Amino acid sequence: MMHLSQIFWSGFLLLAIPALAALKVANNLEVLEWTPALIAKEDYYNGTVSIVNGGIPSLSSDTSVDLGANSETQLLRQYASHKNLRTVLTTAEVYYRIVASKKKGIEKLEDLKGKRIGAFPSTSSEYFVQTLLATVGLTPSDYTVVAGGACLKEPCGSNTFPAMLKRGAIDAIGMWEPSVQLGAEAIGADAIIFEQTLYREIYGLATTAEKLADPAKRKEIVGFVAALVKAEDVFRTDPDKVVARAAAAVKTNATLFREVWPVHRWTARNPLDIVDVMLEEDKYVARADRRTPMARDVLETLVDRTLLADALKLIESTERRE
């Protein structure tokens, strides 16, 4: 079935709405997932937007920030103590992978027992590793999670996971891209990659209930989300138009970005299962943060589906005027 953005945006270059005031968006500028926001800003948003380094925590630490983006683990961590947060749009769903060294006797997931796995503790990276390895009966006590750094392109620093894998300091890497791909390239024919569809990072935008209740601010956010819908459509259907710019934005190279593109589902939506996913995942976040997991009704309040609906209406009305 044709995506709504394909119906409403075909051949359309700029969202034809009145000029908007300045909007401030906080993103982790060292991950690939933020790059649709750049294309939305530069190609489709008819207003001024500032994209700064940060994320969902910025919404609480800096009241000038209107939107923040992170994975669902960080969203849960912040929402536990800031119940005014609202997630309004998923911009990327990323199916993490594990790369391991066959020289360490790893041919299947079960062989990771007793091994050292590079991952970021208390993040979607570690949660992914735990979730995937649990499917073959491994618990966190069966392997060691080793902290390190991400790498966006060669040469990778000595403290980054690809370099650690190459010199044998770790036996595998489990996290977001492109560190997994770079790890595979670092060890060449020795690499074995485990693909999966059990877990996907849900990287999305959040704002606050107060900003959604402010008519002027809500109008700005709706306009930017509408621009993101268009940007996501290009990422999904014609990536050659944006891959070089997106790669440059995170200081990687387009060839590497193309390699990991299929791991990403570039989408602008509110997943129907997002509450179910967060309900299960919050058990992990709550243990890490030493609190009680949040109940379903609490997590349902976190999800706002009205803003995307308003953005799609804006797209439709704009298309009718053309």
TrEMBL record:
Q: Return the InterPro entries for the record.
A: SsuA/THI5 (IPR015168)
Query: Which controlled-vocabulary keywords does the entry list?
Result: Signal
- Which positions fall inside the SsuA/THI5-like domain? 63-241
Q: Which residues form the signal peptide?
A: 1-22
What protein name does the entry list? SsuA/THI5-like domain-containing protein
